[in-house]
Every structure is written in structure tokens, then in C-alpha cells.
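Q: Given only this backbone (260 positions), what sequence would you predict?
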């Protein structure tokens, strides 16, 4: 079998005796869109933080393209091609949307003072290419008309789209989205699903998505993992997971699950 792009193997994390994650495992295949769902407090955000290097974990292993990344700093993991968004967007509010996009691109020749002095033609060529790439991504995300707006003036939904655009601008292989549909109106949620699938199909991006909106999960994801109380509960296609009695019990309670 092909090596998964991301493999989480028996990951555990505790906070002062509270077990946030206990032997959690999941795999994300290259070119797939995978959902991570579960009730509040089940460990989804902790898992994201451990995988992306923002939290150390107590036991287990995280491998990206077969390489262990446990203990790496977030910026080193991002350079390998694994990036994540946050629920609040983290855009620089007093910079324009386009400037935020350009700032997200790594490995820019003009970042070092000596290169800025000696490699001006190369810098101009790179900046022209990056500007074209940024405008192309903004067009895909339907943010072209706000490209010159301050990021702080965007709506909540537009902030989520900008966070996705910045992640794509990093040229990452795996993009982890943290509740992209939270606080977004239903019409934009449907558009967001279409955009994610389009980025996968046209650009070969892979996604791991935390989300509570099951319509988003059903529309976007190929496979879903369900957590409950810091443990693996279920996995399968969105349809399979939504029919699983264990998942229905966690979300609806025993009495409602029996009726369903």
C-alpha cells in the first residue's frame, strides 16, 4: 500500500492528568479530503495542535510523507508542506488582502538584506510571479473584488476564505482547516465546499478538516474520522459515519439513537 501523506499513530496527550487524546490514530491519503468530527471537548483541536507542532505530545508518532515530525517547530513542519489555519483567521488586519497573500509565500529572494541588494532582477521576476499566483488564488476564492481592502474590514466568511488562500499560497501539500464553516452563512458554506474540492481536483491539494457542520463534511469529504472523549470512535465515508449507532449515540443520546 502507498505511504499515507499524513499518519498519526497512537497519539496521546494529557493536561494535568486530563487525557485529551488517548491512542488516537488516523491516516490522510494524498489528494484526499478527510474530515475530523466529534462533540466539543473530544480532542480535535488538541490533535491539530500536536500534528502541526504547536503542542508537544506525550506518546505516539506523527509522520508526514513517512518522516517523523514530532518535536519539530511549527515553521519547520510548514516548510515540509504541512500548514494549518486557525478558527480566528490570524490575518494581519492593517495590511490588504493581497499583501496578506504575498506575505504568506515562503522562500522569497528579497527576504535577506544582501540578496535584496545584489539580486534585484531575480527579486522582480519572483515578485511578478507571486503576484500573479496570489491574484489567481483570490479569483478562485472569489475575493478579487476585496484584494485591496484591509483584511480587518472583511466579513467572518471572507476571513475564513483568506485563511485558506494564505495556506494555498504557502504551496503546502496538506492543508489543515480548523472549522472553516463556523459563523459562515449557509450560501457561502456551499461555495466553500466547492472551492475546497476544486483546489483538490485542480491543484492536487490534500485537506484535513475539523468541522461541526455535517452538510459541509458530507459535501466535501471523502473519508471521516470521529473522536469521542479523546479516543477514536468511528471512521468511514460521511454516509457510513452518519449511520453508525455509536456516532448517533454521542451526538443525539441513547434514546434518540435508538429511534434513528
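A: Predicted residues:
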Amino acid at each position: 500500500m502507498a505511504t499515507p501523506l499524513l499518519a498519526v499513530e497512537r497519539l496521546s496527550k494529557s493536561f494535568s492528568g486530563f487525557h485529551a487524546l488517548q491512542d488516537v490514530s488516523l491516516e490522510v491519503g494524498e489528494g484526499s479530503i478527510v474530515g475530523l468530527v466529534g462533540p466539543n471537548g473530544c480532542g480535535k483541536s488538541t490533535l491539530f495542535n500536536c500534528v502541526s507542532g504547536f503542542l508537544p505530545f506525550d506518546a505516539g508518532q506523527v509522520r508526514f510523507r513517512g518522516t517523523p515530525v514530532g518535536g519539530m517547530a511549527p515553521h519547520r513542519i510548514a516548510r515540509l508542506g504541512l500548514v494549518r489555519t486557525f478558527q480566528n483567521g490570524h490575518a494581519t488586519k492593517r495590511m490588504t488582502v493581497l499583501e496578506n497573500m504575498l506575505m504568506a509565500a515562503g522562500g522569497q529572494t528579497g527576504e535577506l538584506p544582501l540578496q535584496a541588494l545584489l539580486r534585484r532582477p531575480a527579486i522582480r521576476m519572483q515578485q511578478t510571479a507571486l503576484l500573479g499566483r496570489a491574484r489567481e488564488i483570490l479569483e478562485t476564492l472569489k475575493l478579487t473584488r476585496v484584494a485591496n481592502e484591509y483584511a480587518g474590514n472583511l466579513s467572518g466568511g471572507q476571513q475564513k476564505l483568506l485563511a485558506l488562500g494564505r495556506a494555498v499560497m504557502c504551496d503546502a501539500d496538506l492543508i489543515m482547516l480548523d472549522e472553516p464553516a463556523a459563523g459562515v452563512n449557509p450560501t457561502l458554506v456551499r461555495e466553500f465546499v466547492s472551492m475546497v474540492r476544486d483546489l483538490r481536483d485542480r491543484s492536487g491539494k490534500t485537506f484535513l478538516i475539523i468541522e461541526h457542520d455535517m452538510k459541509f463534511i458530507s459535501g466535501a469529504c471523502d473519508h471521516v474520522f470521529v473522536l469521542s472523549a479523546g479516543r477514536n470512535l468511528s471512521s468511514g465515508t460521511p454516509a457510513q459515519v452518519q449511520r453508525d449507532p455509536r456516532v448517533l449515540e454521542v451526538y443525539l443520546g441513547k434514546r434518540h439513537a435508538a429511534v434513528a
